Amino acid sequence: MKKLHFLLALAIGAGTLTASAIDPTATDYTFIECQGSAIPYPDRNVEGLAYPDSLAPVYLNHVGRHGARFLSSSKYTNSLLRSLHKADSLRTITPMGRELIKVCDLVVARTAGRWGALDSLGMAEQRAIASRAFMAFKPLFDNTKINAIASYVPRCVMSMDEFTHQLTRLNNKVEIYMSSGRQNSPLVRPWTDDEAYKAFMASEEWHKVYDDYVDSHVPVTVAERALGKNYPFNGDEARDISQAIYKVLAGCAAMSIDIDLQKYFTKAEINSLWSVENLHHYLTHSASTLSSAPPELASRLLSELIATLDSAVEGKNPYSVMLRFGHAETMMPLLALIHVPGCYYMTNYFDTVGLHWRDFYVVPMASNLQMILFRSESGKYYLRVDLNEQPVPLIPGRQTIYIPWATAREYLNRCLPIQYQN
């Protein structure tokens, strides 16, 4: 009997090893994490922003993504509904497909023409971040001046409005100067005019990497379970429908629509679908071996962050806080350009990206980078960098959180292309 148990254990172990060896790059993230960049902002508390008594905050740079929003367009909802209604008319639709029709109808009704707009959850996220910054760095929000800019996109403007409105509720002895519009695009929407980036996006190299990955990783089983195996899929239609199902359902939590993702995907399926979207974000807006164009989109923004910190050290910056509100596409290049841990990964094996670069960590809704300048009792200045309100080491290979400004400045300046260095 013992020998039988031993042989069974060996067989089970061998089966496990074989399964993992089939695809060692497969991920096993939770259903919540697999919402990807549509995941709502993580829970935070003000205690996580505490700093030593020997340091006093003197200046804060904040770069943030807009908060949770309705789906950015009706593209996926409409295409999915067309396929579902076709399956219904052909009588191939499954119970899961009928449930998806209800979900899509709910999304359309909840959105009611507000595609891409900030929703109540996104407003609350921005107010909460503002409140924690106020509580953690109170001297910066009392009888001081604050400058805030936003992309021209309404959800970014409203994110700025919610953030600054909360600050004035907490202390109206602060002057806030706000600006939104296309004049801010060089800082928060640089991809619209950058020629090097446009050339990269038009190139075949990244498209081939991505398309090959889509072909091998999008599970058609999701579409088949919704529309039925007898549905007359054409070409890549099953893959497209599986991706549309993922895009719609993954975006529901950001709209405060409660969906049990486990009713529609296996864990392996949602991990595969997430990895496809994750790779797209990585290839088009982070650092990779294919091109330096995506991270260098943030060059002007980083140069401005350095300059405003310099002026704060020199006592020439009229503002105690400067806020900038943009998009996930604003954040990803910046975080990659300065090599924030978990936001920078270089490889020629693109099937490993999901193991090391995860959009749900890099750019959840309302993601933000804060650079806090402190002055010590001796008069020396230090910089702390927070990603999503969590202090992170700035310089690769070092675990130091509080870095002398001269050292931090030298490092940040070296991250810039030569034409932007100063």
- SSE string, helix = H, strand = E? HEHHHEHEHHHHHHHHEHHHEEEEH
Assembly state: single chain
What count of helical segments does DSSP give? 17
- CATH level 1 name of the domain at 27-70 and 116-197 and 285-420: Alpha Beta
Structural class: alpha/beta
Q: Can you say what the CATH homologous superfamily of the domain at 27-70 and 116-197 and 285-420 is? A: Phosphoglycerate mutase-like
How many strands, which pairing sense, and closed or not: the largest β-sheet?
A: 8 strands, mixed
Looking at the structure, what is the overall shape? globular
What's the N-to-C terminus distance? 75 Å
Stretches where pLDDT is under 50 for at least 5 consecutive residues are: 1-21
Strand tally, please? Answer: 8
CATH architecture of the domain at 27-70 and 116-197 and 285-420: 3-Layer(aba) Sandwich
Helical content, roughly?
A: 40-55%
CATH fold-level assignment of the domain at 27-70 and 116-197 and 285-420: Rossmann fold
Taking all residues together, what is the mean pLDDT?
Answer: 94
**Radius of gyration over all CA atoms, rounded:** 24 Å
Proportion of residues in extended strands: 5-15%
